[in-house]
Amino acid sequence: MSSNSAPKVGVIMGSKSDWPVMEHAVSMLERLGVAYETRVVSAHRTPDLLFDYAKSAADRGLQVIVAGAGGAAHLPGMVASQTPLPVLGVPVESKALKGLDSLLSIAQMPGGIAVGTLAIGKAGATNAGLLAAQIIGLQDATVRSAVEAFRAEQTQKVLDNPDPRPEPEAE
């Protein structure tokens, strides 16, 4: 987002290797005109940074945090424990268990520490960006209009292409 817009959404991930998934959250935020910031914040390698980031997020103007993590996937839950802001967790596919470990780690939060858990991988990151925009849209009519336009476009794509068969190739 442009530097003259204060970020409303923080998009964080546990490792730089999570970027190929998390860039889809950023792409959706950009498409919908939501200002964001993004960075690596590791629950295991930089716990002090994680606590500082989460505790200062609201004072810095963030309204939602999207946190992507693979493997043990502690990042979303640890961030949620340190901020009153909504935290959306994106399970990143792991090599060992194909992201199921990440999904369960993020989804199985104890009562009292809420993390909204999305699907594993690209779809989850895309929807996390969309859901973050919907949350921002509760108070920002411009973002709400962008979300409504996006949804109308999705509807129109289906209506314009009702035939499920592939189009014949030109000879």
Summarize the structure.
By secondary structure, the chain is of the alpha/beta class.
List the helices and strands and how they pair.
Blueprint: E1 9-13, H1 19-31, E2 36-40, H2 47-56, E3 64-70, H3 75-80, E4 87-92, H4 100-107, E5 116-117, H5 122-137, H6 141-160
Parallel strand pairs: 1-2, 1-3, 3-4, 4-5
Helix pairs in contact: 1-5, 5-6
Folded structure, characterized:
- The chain has about 170 residues and is of the alpha/beta class.
- The protein has six helices and five strands, in the order βαβαβαβαβαα.
- α1 packs parallel to α5 and α5 (about 120-135) crosses α6.
- The radius of gyration is 17 Å and the shape is globular.
- The mean pLDDT is about 95.
Query: Any low-confidence stretches, pLDDT <50, length ≥5?
Result: none
Overall mean confidence score, pLDDT = 95
User: Helical segment tally?
Assistant: 6
Report the count of strand segments.
5
Order of helices and strands: EHEHEHEHEHH
The N- to C-terminal Cα distance equals 44 Å
Beta-strand fraction estimate: 5-15%
Protein name: N5-carboxyaminoimidazole ribonucleotide mutase
Family: Belongs to the AIR carboxylase family. Class I subfamily.
Enzyme class: isomerase
EC number: 5.4.99.18
Which properties best describe this structure?
globular; 5 strands; 6 helices; 43% helix; five-stranded parallel β-sheet; alpha/beta; 171 residues
